[in-house]
Design goal:
Blueprint lengths: L3 H4 L14 E5 L4 H7 L3 H7 L4 E6 L4 H4 L7 E4 L5 H11 L6 E4 L4 H8 L6 E6 L5 E3 L4 H4 L9 H10 L4 H9 L12 H13 L7 E6 L13 H14 L4 E5 L6 H11 L4 E4 L6 H9 L3 E4 L3 H8 L3 E6 L13 E5 L19 H11 L5
Parallel strand pairs: 1-2, 1-4, 2-3, 4-5, 7-8, 7-10, 8-9, 10-11, 11-12
Antiparallel strand pairs: 5-6
Helix pairs in contact: 2-14, 5-6, 10-13, 11-12, 11-15
């Protein structure tokens, strides 16, 4: 293992330029977090002009990184498989890494990066006594998380008090320019999106507004309820004189929820149910066909940002400050006392259809 004096930022000064040629990024989940972390890639390339980036991620997230031109290799890893982790560790240990960026705090991943020869480690790692820890240079992010050296109560307060976005925090930590996430759709996905738009004649009926108001099974308080979603669609349909098509989006855990939205709206609006079983890049291709996306703080939002699709996003249990919209939309934030509490049952009553509709009408791009 590399001498710890070389592994911790502050003791091994960086001169930039061509100092680092091999960079290993460990970011495996969740899907939206993986995609938004691609914002660091342009800045890394500017700082280390001849760098070769290898990215370790979960199998489900590979498509979010594979086509990025700034990533040389994507490695899929099931971190729950001790055999897979050991096998990958043996392979990666054959390289002395210029820089390892460890952004996940799971014990197997901390153990993996701690065993690698590297000139500089930034992020979560394993101490010699088996405790998980993080390097000082990433404190602005990890201080607000589960590993926080300040304890959970202080970490939660820091999360609420934070006013910087995820890409701004990461850029400052890494000493790079703040970048933007990107997602490249391959030819097959673009063809699918074109076919979807043609099949449902999306361009023939005015504006196209995507509705992704669920958030999977865990975060009930991230969602806009079935009733509120239906009310939102009716308000917008009225305000836009019926010249709008709504595309209903969701993931595998939202089948019943989306069916309830379809049933609630009946024939009140023009609604296309895109289904809840679309492969990742097909899902992204559908989002790319929307003039605007209404979304919870979820994967769909990060996809829209990466594809430059305007968005209106609502927040109750999670931090609105962490999300950087890059001038591509508007946030509707809960005014309840438990905003940003990260509670699955946070109060969402102040996130109303009327507030969301007003934001949508302000943000809809003008048509020529």
């Amino acid at each position: 293992m590399t001498d710890p004096a070389l592994r911790y930022p502050g003791t091994a000064p960086s001169t930039g330029g061509t100092e680092v040629t091999t960079i290993l990024i460990v970011k495996t989940g969740a899907l939206g977090d993986v995609l938004r972390t691609t914002s660091i890639l342009p800045g890394l390339r500017e700082r280390y002009t001849d760098c070769r980036v290898t990215w370790i991620t979960a199998p489900a997230a590979v498509e979010l990184v594979r086509s990025n031109p700034l990533v040389a290799e994507v490695v899929a890893l099931d971190a729950k498989s001790s055999h897979a982790v050991a096998e990958l560790q043996a392979r990666l240990a054959r390289t002395t890494w210029g820089r390892v960026l460890s952004f996940d705090d799971e014990e197997p991943l901390c153990r993996l990066v701690s065993a690698l020869p590297t000139k500089r480690l930034s992020g979560a790692y394993l101490e010699s006594d088996g405790r998980r820890a993080y390097t000082p240079d990433v404190a602005p992010w990890f201080d607000m998380g589960l590993l926080s050296v300040h304890g959970k109560a202080r970490a939660d307060r820091m999360k609420v008090e934070n006013r910087k976005s995820h890409p701004a925090i990461f850029a400052e930590m890494l000493g790079i320019r703040m970048g933007k996430p990107t997602l490249k759709l391959d030819e097959r996905a673009r063809h699918f999106g074109d076919g979807f738009a043609a099949r449902y004649e999306l361009a023939a009926h005015g504006r196209v507004i995507g509705l992704n108001t669920g958030a999977g099974g865990r975060w009930h308080s991230k969602t806009l309820s079935v009733e509120k979603t239906a009310a939102l669609a009716r308000i917008l349909n009225l305000e836009l004189g019926g010249a709008v098509t709504f595309v209903l989006l969701g993931g595998p855990g939202e089948v019943e929820r989306n069916l309830a939205i379809v049933s609630a709206l009946k024939d009140d609006v023009r609604l296309v149910d895109a289904g809840c079983d679309n492969p990742l890049l097909d899902f992204a291709a559908i989002v790319s066909k929307c003039d605007l996306l209404v979304s919870s703080d979820s994967l769909a939002l990060h996809v829209a940002i990466a594809l430059d699709v305007r968005s209106v996003v609502f927040f109750a249990p999670t931090s609105a400050a962490e999300i950087e919209l890059y001038g591509l939309g508007e946030k509707v934030v809960s005014t309840a006392p438990d905003y940003c509490s990260y509670k699955p049952d946070a109060d969402v009553s102040t996130v109303t259809p009327e507030r969301v509709a007003a934001a949508v009408l302000r943000q809809l791009p003008r048509r020529a």
